[in-house]
């Protein structure tokens, strides 16, 4: 086999690999967009019927209830927080986390009612007055 034929084959292989990667990335992006659109449509239908999902992902719960994922993780790591009543781990301690909507709402409501009043002169009290 000549040197040129080997070079041509490796060039074609590299070209094919580049085209394959580009098409794979484009297809994956389109599939993810379609999945998100279908998911959003299903959630809109559920909300239109006045129903709520029983469980949410952590990101969905953070977005719906207005707190950051870091805050959720901090609560989850603190056994004294009591948020564990609103968390289900159906696949064990290292599995996925399902946030139970009704329990989380109740936990947040209780937490806000039991929140300590900031003492005068603290940064939190000054921010609340401003």
What are the defining features of this structure?
single chain, 130 residues, 3-stranded antiparallel β-sheet, 5% strand, mainly alpha, elongated, 3 strands
At a glance:
With 130 residues, the protein is mainly alpha-helical. The chain folds into 2 domains: 1-51; 55-114. It has helices at 3-48, 58-65, 69-77, 101-114, 123-129, and strands at residues 55-56, 87-88, 98-100.
Which SSEs are present, and which pair or pack?
Blueprint: H1 3-48, E1 55-56, H2 58-65, H3 69-77, E2 87-88, E3 98-100, H4 101-114, H5 123-129
Antiparallel strand pairs: 1-3, 2-3
What does this structure look like?
There is one protein chain. The chain has helices spanning 3-48, 58-65, 69-77, 101-114, 123-129, and strands at residues 55-56, 87-88, 98-100. The mean pLDDT is 79. With 130 residues, the chain is mainly alpha-helical. Strands 1-3-2 form a three-stranded antiparallel β-sheet. The protein has two domains: 1-51; 55-114. 65% of the residues lie in helices and 5% in strands. The chain is elongated, with a radius of gyration of 25 Å.
Distance between the termini: 82 Å
Oligomer state of the chains in this structure:
single chain
Largest sheet: spatial strand order: 1-3-2
Task: List unreliable stretches of 5+ residues.
Answer: none
How many individual helices? 5
Q: What coarse outline follows from CA principal-axis ratios?
A: elongated
Strand tally, please?
A: 3
Give the proportion of residues in helices.
55-70%
- Measured on Cα atoms, how large is the radius of gyration? 25 Å
Count of separate structural domains: 2
């Amino acid at each position: 086999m000549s040197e040129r034929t080997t070079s041509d084959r490796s060039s074609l292989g590299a070209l094919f690999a580049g085209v394959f990667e580009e098409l794979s990335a484009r297809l994956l992006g389109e599939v993810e967009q379609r999945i998100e659109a279908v998911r959003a449509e299903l959630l809109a239908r559920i909300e239109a019927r006045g129903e709520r999902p029983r469980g949410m992902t952590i990101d969905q719960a953070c977005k719906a209830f207005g707190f950051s994922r870091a805050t959720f993780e901090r609560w989850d790591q603190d056994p004294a927080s009591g948020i564990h009543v609103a968390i289900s781990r159906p696949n064990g301690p290292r599995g996925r986390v399902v946030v139970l909507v009704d329990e989380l709402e109740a936990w947040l409501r209780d937490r806000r009612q039991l929140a300590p009043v900031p003492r005068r002169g603290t940064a939190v009290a000054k921010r609340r007055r401003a």
